Amino acid sequence: MGHHWTYDSQSGAGDWLGTSRYSCSLCVFASKRDLPLAIAWRPRLADLYALVERGRGGTFRPDWRITT
């Protein structure tokens, strides 16, 4: 049985170098390894999250900030 492309570095690569779990984009439960991948795959969404992060003055999650 095949697997979803999110587990690959890019769609169809079959290399299992993508995210470690299948979840929502930029999931607060994602690992610190998975978050940069999600940001690279969905930069516009990450920009929106960063805008909200700056506007609220908080962080995406307690141990991770999308804005630098």
Q: What would the keywords be for this entry?
A:
68 residues, mainly alpha, 2 helices, 0% strand
What are the segments in which pLDDT stays under 50 over at least 5 consecutive residues? Answer: none
> Helix coverage percent of residues?
25-40%
Shape designation: elongated
Question: How many angstroms does the end-to-end distance come to?
Answer: 40 Å
Tally the helices. 2
| Helix-strand string | HH
Total strands: the figure is 0
Task: Provide the gyration radius in Å.
Answer: 13 Å
Structural class: mainly alpha
Q: Tell me about the largest β-sheet.
A: none
Mean pLDDT, to the nearest integer, reads: 84
Q: Please state roughly what percent of the residues sit in beta strands, choosing from under 5%, 5-15%, 15-25%, 25-35%, 35-45% or over 45%.
A: under 5%
Summarize the structure in words.
It is built from 2 helices and no strands. It is mainly α. It has a domain at 24-68.
Topology:
Blueprint: H1 34-41, H2 43-56
Helix pairs in contact: 1-2
Summarize the structure.
The chain has helices spanning 34-41, 43-56. The chain is mainly α and 68 residues long.
